Amino acid sequence: MLKSAVCNRMKEELCIVLTTTDCQKTVQTIIEAALERELSACIQTLPIQSSYKWEGKLHQDSETLLIFKTQKVCYKKLEDLISSLHNYEVPEVIQLSISEGFSPYLTWLKESTRC
User: Fold this and answer.
1) Tens digits of per-residue pLDDT, 64-84?
2) Where are the transmembrane segments (predicted)?
């Protein structure tokens, strides 16, 4: 198989998963559980401001965005883990495909996750 075909197939197998929470304890619990289970190779966090409408009311909250780098085959297990540990009734859990990336990093990402 050509090297470019292998790289393209690998990129199609990888994804980013996003979730947010307003609770630092939830952040740490989810991160530790996901890394211990090797459901994500890397998890980054960013402080954000979220504006949304929930149950008919407008909200503006300070939250933490969690960015998981993983394989698509891990998504369901990661979604189940996040939703089971999350402090929100309906947490955001979104999968985004990785379409391009530095090949050595993508190789590390795939080798660092076990699903």
Assistant:
1) 999 999 999 999 999 999 999
2) none
Residue 10 resides in a domain: no
Pairing of strands 14-21, 42-54: unpaired
Percent of the chain scoring above 70 in pLDDT:
90
Flag whether 3 is in a domain: no
Please count the structural domains in the chain. 1
Which structure tokens are listed for 22? 């307003």
Neighbours of 12 (CB within 10 A): 12
Domain assignment present for 9? no
Residue 54 corresponds to which amino acid? W
Mean per-residue pLDDT of the chain = 92
